[in-house]
Amino acid sequence: MKKTIVVQRNDPNADDASNERKLAELKELAHAADYVVVGVLVQSRYPDRKYQIGRGKVDELAELVEALDAEKVIFNNQLSTTQIYNISETCKCEVMDRFQLILEIFAARATTRRAKLQVELAKLHYELPKARSIVSLLKKEERPGFMGLGGYEDSYEQDIKKRIVRIRAELLHSCKGSESLRSFRHERGFSLVALAGYTNAGKSTLFQSLVKEGTIVEDMLFTTLSPTTRSLTINKRRMLLTDTVGFIEDLPYWMVDAFRSTLDEIFLADIILLVVDMSDPVDVIRQKLAVSHDIFWKRTEGAVIVTALNKTDLLPEEDLQEKLDVISYLAPHPVMISAISDKGTDELKQLLYENLPKWEHSRISIPMSEEGMSTVSWLYDEGIVHTIEYGDSILMEIEARDEIIQKVKPFVISS
Ligand SMILES: Nc1nc2c(ncn2[C@@H]2O[C@H](COP(=O)(O)OP(=O)(O)OP(=O)(O)O)[C@@H](O)[C@H]2O)c(=O)[nH]1
Ligand SMILES: [Mg+2]
């Protein structure tokens, strides 16, 4: 974890509360990218329009970097190439802006080929307008390595343009890889549950708390497909739980596709587990829920939404109930939880179980033979075996997806 200092120039036209919220969001983003925020610097008086930060403040920042031994400075406002260059010279550490931070988060979370291409595309869009000044700065200063650029040449800008064209073409032809991921998982009898919600809502904490008794062997298979997916068994039903990137507001248009593609897992899920931070002010919760539903709308097919109202440990019971009353129309299948203390986890698991795609019950009789025995072990893998009796034939009571029942149709006695 890298130590970082976050810097914000307050918007003089916005009120204190909204400036504070912006800063809080930046800290949350830094946390999401695995940084530890060790210091904060706010520029409240409006400096010269040309600068995001006044001269004196840059010196103050440099002192802070040294005192706190920070490795990185993250600005909430967009910076020009020259600004990044100059500030990093003075502070003697890496400097980046909010957009680069968000790109870093997307890059870390992109699991499918399509998502990776989208993130790469967004990065190139970010770099393109800066290409010329990067090259001229490097030429002036003879400083290779700046902004991750090794050697440089005049064709840098051309090069970026070519890569953009190439990626666009590949994206056009790439089929949705995650579709096949879904069928692969379904073939193996797993239902898909995706965690969704704003950054800092507590998705990853809940993910860890739900999967802590998960089965390691199966996990090894799926971690290679997606590093943020683990298996989870509730009442013998097996599901795959996927942690996803948090929703982020105020994205520029060139980042929207990259953001959406990191959410592919959500759009393919059987259940969307929407995590909400109940310690937010109720207006903020309502706004976040509305945006979340907007993101799911039209992109999900028949997914059930379960709303996990998290961080209930931070509020008294009456406040929780009051907030729930206001937001209930935006919170389908609600359950109050506290991911850090495991409170409500059992109710949540039960709710997930109840909302899984329905499985069929059947009584079947399978001939006692080698082939019959392999069918039995296949059924153990694919469904739930409630009872089994060995006699002249093998009598079983099973529960499984319809496709599975169809395959043993000739043996069905009753359903
Ligand atoms: N008090 C309290 N804090 C919580 C709870 N759940 C999570 N947190 C804290 O909230 C912060 C964010 O939690 P994460 O699990 O990283 O949130 P996230 O939704 O995964 O965030 P992103 O990955 O950035 O989208 C952490 O500091 C957690 O310790 C909770 O139930 N109660
Ligand atoms: Mg997380």
Record keyword descriptors for this entry.
four-stranded parallel β-sheet, binds guanosine-5'-triphosphate, Rossmann fold, alpha/beta, six-stranded mixed β-sheet, 415 residues, 17 helices, binds magnesium ion
Explained architecture:
This protein is of the alpha/beta class and 415 residues long. The protein folds into 4 domains: 2-104, GTPase HflX, N-terminal domain (Rossmann fold, 3-Layer(aba) Sandwich); 110-173; 177-354, Rossmann fold (3-Layer(aba) Sandwich); 360-414. The chain is built from 17 helices and 14 strands. The termini are far apart. It binds guanosine-5'-triphosphate (GTP) and magnesium ion (MG). Magnesium ion binds at residues 203-204, 243.
**How many alpha or pi helices?**
17
Bound molecules: guanosine-5'-triphosphate, magnesium ion
**Spatial gap, N to C terminus:** 55 Å
**What summary fits the major beta sheet?**
6 strands, mixed
Beta strand %: 15-25%
> How many domain units?
4
CATH architecture of the largest domain: 3-Layer(aba) Sandwich
Mean pLDDT, nearest integer?
A: 85
Could you name the CATH class of the largest domain?
Answer: Alpha Beta
Subunit structure: Monomer. Associates with the 50S ribosomal subunit.
Domain Hflx-type G: 191-360
Function: GTPase that associates with the 50S ribosomal subunit and may have a role during protein synthesis or ribosome biogenesis.
GO molecular function: GTP binding; GTPase activity; metal ion binding; ribosome binding
